[in-house]
């Protein structure tokens, strides 16, 4: 009999419970394995905080949001412990063996795959499932959580449209996605945003303002600007480059990337608010910022995410039964397939600038600020 451990790591995502259920029910019912959960990501495995999953806990969770196991962004090799950051990989490996595990299933994105790869390199059998609302995991067509967040962000844009229209305002709506713009692009198209700003396409705020003024001249004195959390303007990029040239104040022996992180933190703080103010200034129209934030991650998964999570979860149990480890279970068209962790770990799947969706959005007049 095989013993499976399972944990959820990184930001939560609708469909995590459906995936836990998919892995668990297939493993227990179909393959006759045992399954045990670890709480709060890699931290729970390090602290050996377990959660039983073979006593009915998998029932009634298909439709629920969040993760019944809890999650954290902790990494095995950089774990905050007693005020220090320590490499706790060996403790995690020890608990894997103490629990007699044959495989550890990690539900997470590209960062989680990187952590799992480290454990694979220590000799553990690991498998990951791709979850994130950002849809930015390499090697898979799609991640679970994305479809739900897309629905929420689209509905938000629909609602913002009517109020923007009534007040003749610009509404700048910030959509999650700090490195990839899939969510802002999808919701922007589905919600008919007039401007979509993505991390992949640095924008010029003057071009955005002119697109809005042009709409006003054409009798539409309201606009929706869908901005991905990580979108950057050409002006911000220039300021960032300038700042990183100089040593940060008071830091003599700083590392180059310290300064970059400091500079980015300063530049990115309140940027949606600042963008709204700037557009107000440049267009003479009133502007309001709306940050959708974690609303996009909460609540029940959509039907599509429940289906995807179930597909990937059950395929995961089948791979364990076959003894295929060191992979992420990816969605490829209607099929699922194992992809080596090395091909996924730490990678970010960004939106290509010539992606068909971008071209299509341009055809209907969407402005990308470039
Ligand atoms: O990766 C998922 C995500 O929701 C990103 O879109 C967002 O930038 C980030 O997590 C927010 O993280 P946190 O939950 O730590 O605020």
TrEMBL record:
Q: What is this protein called?
A: ATP-dependent 6-phosphofructokinase
Q: Could you tell me which Pfam families the record lists for this protein?
A: PFK
Binding positions (ATP): 11, 73-74
The protein's matches in Gene3D superfamilies, at most eight in alphabetical order, are given as: 3.40.50.450, Phosphofructokinase domain
Domain of life the protein comes from = Bacteria
**Which chemical reaction does it catalyze?**
beta-D-fructose 6-phosphate + ATP = beta-D-fructose 1,6-bisphosphate + ADP + H(+)
Annotated Phosphofructokinase domain ranges read 4-320
Does the record carry Nucleotide-binding as a key word?
Answer: yes
Write out the similarity annotation: Belongs to the phosphofructokinase type A (PFKA) family. Mixed-substrate PFK group III subfamily.
**Active site (catalytic residues):** 134 (proton acceptor)
Offer a single GO CC term for the protein.
Answer: 6-phosphofructokinase complex
Oligomeric state and partners? Homodimer or homotetramer.
Keyword Transferase tagged: yes
């Amino acid at each position: 009999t095989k013993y499976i451990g399972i944990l959820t790591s990184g930001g939560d995502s609708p469909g995590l419970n459906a995936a836990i259920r998919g892995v668990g029910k297939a493993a227990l019912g179909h393959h006759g394995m045992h399954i045990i959960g670890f709480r709060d990501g890699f931290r729970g495995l390090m602290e050996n905080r377990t959660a039983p999953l073979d006593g009915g806990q998998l029932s009634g969770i298909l439709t629920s949001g969040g993760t019944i196991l809890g999650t954290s962004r902790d990494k095995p090799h950089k774990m905050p412990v007693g005020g220090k950051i320590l490499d706790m990989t060996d403790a995690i490996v020890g608990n894997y063996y103490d629990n007699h595990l044959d495989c550890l299933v990690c539900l997470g994105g590209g960062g989680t795959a990187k952590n799992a790869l480290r454990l694979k390199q220590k000799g553990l059998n690991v498998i990951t499932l791709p979850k994130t609302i950002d849809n930015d995991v390499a090697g898979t067509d799609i991640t679970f959580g994305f479809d739900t967040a897309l629905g929420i962000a689209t509905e938000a844009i629909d609602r913002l449209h009517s109020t923007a229209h009534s007040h003749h305002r610009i509404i700048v709506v910030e959509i999650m996605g700090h490195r990839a713009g899939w969510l802002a692009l999808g919701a922007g198209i589905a919600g008919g945003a007039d401007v979509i700003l993505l991390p992949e396409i640095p924008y010029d705020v003057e071009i955005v303002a002119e697109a809005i003024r042009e709409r006003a001249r054409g009798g539409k004195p309201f606009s929706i600007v869908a901005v991905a959390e990580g979108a950057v303007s050409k002006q911000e990029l220039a300021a960032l480059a300038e700042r990183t040239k100089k040593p940060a104040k008071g830091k003599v022996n700083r590392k180059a990337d310290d300064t970059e992180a400091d500079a980015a933190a300063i530049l990115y703080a309140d940027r949606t608010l600042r963008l709204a103010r700037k557009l107000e200034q440049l267009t003479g129209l009133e502007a309001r910022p709306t940050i959708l934030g974690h609303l996009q991650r909460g609540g029940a998964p959509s039907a599509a995410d429940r289906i995807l999570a179930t597909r990937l979860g059950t395929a995961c149990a089948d791979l364990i039964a076959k003894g295929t480890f060191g992979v992420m279970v990816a969605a490829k068209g209607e099929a699922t397939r194992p992809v080596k962790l090395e091909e996924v770990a730490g990678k970010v799947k960004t939106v290509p600038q010539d992606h068909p969706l971008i071209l299509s959005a341009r055809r209907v007049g969407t402005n990308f600020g470039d």
